[in-house]
Design a protein that fits this description.
The chain is an alpha+beta fold. The chain is 57% helix and 15% strand. Helix 4 runs antiparallel to helix 5 and helix 6 runs antiparallel to helix 7.
Length: 427
């Protein structure tokens, strides 16, 4: 009965609460409990297959069928009473039988679920639990003697529950037949409904404990992947303040790392969220049993603290590490962006200095051209002015040469003043 890995989905886990209590149980009795889960994408499984599997079991005993689209069902199957429930990621079957076999935890009790029927299940068995319910002996020593015979003492958890109404025990070990075993010793006079609720709590604790342990499998595989990404990210951040690596190369590597981290987050977020929800249910179910220590033996809460809590802390650590690395990649992207901006600012500064030099050169060339333009314009202006001034010069008895000599300074001055005025006007 292996622990199987689940394919992740990106949405929050639905809180798994049993709104439908177990039926009232008359002591002595026994219960056979199964939880079946599809290995991949269980939350999005075809639930019609679960219903078909249930109907095949009911048809073997000629029992009535549940309503269409029903998520729970109770009815007889032979000498047993069956309770079936469909949950977010799994389905559960519980068969209740009156009386107990002389042989404690007889594997024959589990034959209420035939092997060929189990082989045809749309999934794998996540939990297979045998629960034996009998009256509480008057002496605790007699109870402890039975527990020493039935269970492995190293991992045995036993306690009084529900204000002393019962004593529950389990060693959380799988026997050679593939079943986990729990014993319930009920104080005479305890109500049948209370007995049913105690059995229900045991089933829930084991189911959600097994479901939450799926997160540990995923956390270990995630840690291996993060161990390979962490040095790459650290080296990339360290090299950001050096000129050995081009920003384009660093950006390419950072995009690869960020893409893989985002892919891992998508892949593992659902499972880690589900694990946290299942862990909360396990803790709550144990707390409502109101445990009291029996003869110095460890309680269920102590067993979980020693064996279960470290696994859950490992899952939380892997989840926190993934988030921290994603944040580091984001900060690395910001640092890289800052480096690119600084380099770009330096390039812009150099470009502005070059533009200033070009503008200064253009100004000098413009002034040179202005000087040359004054000379050229003056040359033509003097010629035109000479033609105009010749008649007047003849009347005054001036020669052509003297007329040109007199006009040239005046024309040059006038042209220079005109060009200067135009330049100041445009400026």
């Amino acid at each position: 009965m292996p622990i199987i890995a689940d394919h992740p989905q990106r949405y929050a886990i639905v809180n798994e609460l049993h709104a439908r209590p177990f039926p009232a149980l008359e002591v002595p009795c026994h219960a056979v409990y199964l939880a079946i889960k599809e290995p991949l994408d269980a939350a999005n499984r075809d639930r019609a297959l679960d219903r078909a599997h249930l109907l095949s079991l009911l048809d073997r005993h000629g029992s009535v069928h549940p309503q269409p689209e029903a998520t729970h069902f109770s009815g007889p199957i032979g000498k047993h009473a069956l309770k079936w429930e469909s949950h977010t990621e799994f389905v559960t079957y519980t068969a209740f039988g009156k009386g107990n076999s002389p042989r404690p935890f007889d594997p024959a009790e589990a034959e209420v679920f035939p092997e060929d029927w189990l082989a045809a299940a749309p999934g794998k068995r996540l939990v297979s639990l045998l629960i034996r319910v009998e009256y509480m002996p008057e002496e605790d020593a007699e109870i402890l003697a039975k527990l020493e015979e039935w269970f492995v003492g190293e991992s045995l958890a036993v306690s009084r529950v529900v204000d002393g109404a019962a004593i529950v025990a389990c060693d959380f070990r799988i026997d050679p037949a593939g079943h986990m075993r729990c014993a319930v010793f009920v104080r005479p006079g305890t109500g049948a409904r209370r007995v049913g609720r105690i059995v229900q709590r045991l089933c829930e604790v084991e189911t959600y404990r097994s479901m939450s342990m799926l997160g540990l499998v995923r956390a270990r595989s995630l840690s291996e992947r993060l161990n390979s990404l962490d040095p790459r990210l650290s080296n990339l951040v360290t090299a950001l303040d050096t000129a050995e690596r081009r920003p384009e190369e660093a950006l390419h590597d950072l995009l690869q790392i960020s893409s893989e981290l985002e892919s891992l987050a998508v892949k593992y977020t659902f499972r880690f969220g589900a694990t946290a929800a299942y862990e909360a249910i396990v803790t709550q179910r144990i707390s409502v049993m109101r445990e009291q220590r029996l003869e110095g033996r460890q309680t269920f809460a102590e067993f979980m603290m020693r064996r279960y809590d470290p696994a859950m802390r490992t899952v939380k650590s892997a989840e926190a590490r993934l988030k921290a690395m994603a944040d580091r990649a984001t900060r690395a992207a910001e640092l890289l962006r800052t480096r690119v901006d600084v380099e770009r600012s330096a390039q812009n500064q150099m470009l502005l200095e070059s533009m200033d030099r070009r503008a200064d050169l253009q100004l000098r060339l413009q002034r040179t051209v202005e000087g040359l333009s004054v000379v050229a314009i003056s040359y033509y202006a003097v010629s035109l002015a000479g033609y105009v001034a010749y008649p007047l010069a003849n009347a005054l008895g001036l020669s052509k040469e003297m007329t040109m000599v007199g006009l040239t300074p005046l024309v040059i001055l006038a042209v220079w003043l005109m060009v200067r005025r135009l330049r100041h006007h445009f400026e």
